[in-house]
Each structure stands twice: as structure tokens, then as C-alpha cells.
Design goal:
143 residues, mainly alpha, elongated, DNA-binding, Arc Repressor Mutant, subunit A, homodimer
Chain lengths: 143, 143
DNA sequence: AATAAAAGTTAGCTGAGCCTAACTTGATTA
DNA sequence: TAATCAAGTTAGGCTCAGCTAACTTTTATT
């Protein structure tokens, strides 16, 4: 067969989907629930766009959504959300260790986090540990 | 004023625009010219899509395009193209030094290259030099 | 020079993901 | 409890960047 592994699944979570799930997980972890209005504010998009996407994420089995009532992540959705969150945290740690400005870090991480595959995540984790373990290395980075 | 620096410019080169310019530069550097059919093959999209985009890039001042005749990059286009090419090369070198498989490197670089800003480029260059200079460090990365 | 093949273009369509405006639902409070 | 206001939803529209099918132009072959 042409398609990989699971025959009836969502179309390999796009950048937008990952951004939504990441934000939703963060809201749930911090406030206990995720409202449309907060997701919209967090992603700096309109509430209408959020409603739309949330309906699609429900259809795709990434969350359970009840009109006007609220939403919860499904295990599948939480897996994606945790994965992107981990990549976000890792890249933030890594770039920060290189001495980059927090604003640059945030901006670049937001772009990069959607594009690193598991082996690369592991390799950067390894490198990050090394840089932490041996602060002297960091001193050699200037210029 | 609200918009930055130059009032009448292209909309801050999207991922797609960067992909086109990168491919065009590579074709010009290797064969001396860039044909629609080769750009299409390189990016794995239809010739029609290339024609469309090339017209837009002309409008945006990133290349000079003459129907049926061919195209050349403008200085502005070449600047963008060289910048993305540099980022591509740098990320490829960097991830390869971490011991990642060539296919993974290629895939991830293609995603990441559009999202690293100049300070991050410089920081990763610095780190890459360090890893090259001290091969023993690389040995400590496994696990 | 005629014709066949390759390259390039146009027209029209699609889907993702955003928007605004107008409407509905639910929560708050007078 | 009724009115108000915040939150949520729907409808319709836009841009970007891709597609196919049909057509035109250029190049190559005979």
C-alpha cells in the first residue's frame, strides 16, 4: 500500500494544526480548560478561525468538541501536542544556550519546531546536554 | 509609519518564494540558466505553477522574466537566494556533524532553513566550527 | 521548410487557513 | 427574571500556492 501505517487517519498534522494543539495543551495545563477566545488570543487570530479549526480537529479525532461547551484533547491529540511542546522546549533551551536573545529564540523556535524529526530531536537533546555539562564550551562560541 | 523600511516591496518572501529562488540559483550556478521545466522538476510541482510564480517574482522585482525566453535573478532576488542557500548549507553541515542520516538531514533542513534568523545563523556557524575543530566532542554525543 | 516534440502559457479550479459581519447561545447582574 | 454582555458560531469571502486541460511558442528532426 501507498500510505504509511494507519489507513484512516488525519492528514499528517500541518503547521497550523500543531500550533493549535500546542496552544490548547498549554491552556489546559495552566488553566484547566481551553476556551475559543483564549486560543484565539494566544495564536493572534480571530475566534471564528478557531471555531472552524476546532471543528476540523474534532473531525480528525484530535480532540472532542461540544458546541458552546468546550473541548478536550483525545489521546491522539495529546500525543501530537506533547510532541510539539517537547520540541519547542528543546529548541528554546538549545538556542538559549548558544547565547541568543530571547526574542530571537522565540521567533525562530516557532518556525523550526514544526520541522525537526525524531532523530534530530534526539541529536539536539544530546548536544544540549553536552553544552550544559561543559559550560566552558559555550565560552568558545563567541565569534 | 506602520510598515517597515521600504513602502513598496514584496511581502517578505514566503517559504515558497525562497524555495523557488533557491532552486533557480542552483540551476543557474550549475547549468548557466534556469528553465521552467527544470524548476518544476526540482521542486516537484507542475510547470504551470512555476510559470505563475515566476511571473509573480518578476512583478515583485526578484527576477527579470521574458515570456518564452527565460529569466535572470535581479540583485534583490540573488540576495535572497544566496541567503537561503547559505542557511541550507549551514544546516546541512551542522546536522550532518551530529551524525544524522543524510535523508533525515535533507528533510529537516528543507523545513528549517526558512525559519532561522541571522543571529541564529551566526550562532550555529560558530557551533559548527567548534564541532569541526574538536572531533572528540562529537564522540561524546552518542546517547 | 514542414512537421513533430518539447517547453511554456493560460484559464479555470481546489483546499488550507485566514478574515469580517451578523447572528446565536450562555453567563452575569440589576 | 429579564436584560445585557461576553463568548461562540455561521456565512461568505479572500489570498496563497498548488493542480489539470487545452492551447501557443520554440526547438529539433527529417
Amino acid at each position: 500500500m501507498k500510505c504509511s501505517a494507519n489507513s484512516r487517519s488525519a492528514p499528517a498534522s500541518s503547521v497550523a494544526v500543531e500550533d493549535y494543539l500546542e496552544r490548547i495543551l498549554e491552556l489546559i495545563d495552566s488553566k484547566g480548560y481551553a476556551r475559543v477566545v483564549d486560543i484565539a488570543a494566544g495564536l493572534k487570530i480571530s475566534q471564528a478561525s478557531v471555531t472552524n479549526m476546532v471543528q476540523r480537529l474534532d473531525t480528525d479525532g484530535l480532540l472532542k468538541y461540544e458546541k458552546y461547551r468546550g473541548l478536550v484533547l483525545t489521546p491522539a491529540g495529546e500525543t501530537v501536542a506533547r510532541s510539539i511542546t517537547r520540541r519547542h522546549q528543546l529548541l528554546t533551551d538549545f538556542l538559549s544556550l548558544l547565547g541568543l536573545d530571547a526574542r530571537v529564540v522565540e521567533h525562530d523556535v516557532e518556525g523550526m519546531e514544526h520541522h525537526i524529526s525524531p532523530p534530530t530531536v534526539r541529536a539536539i537533546e544530546s548536544l544540549t546536554r553536552l553544552l550544559r555539562r561543559r559550560p566552558a564550551l559555550r565560552a568558545q562560541l563567541t565569534k
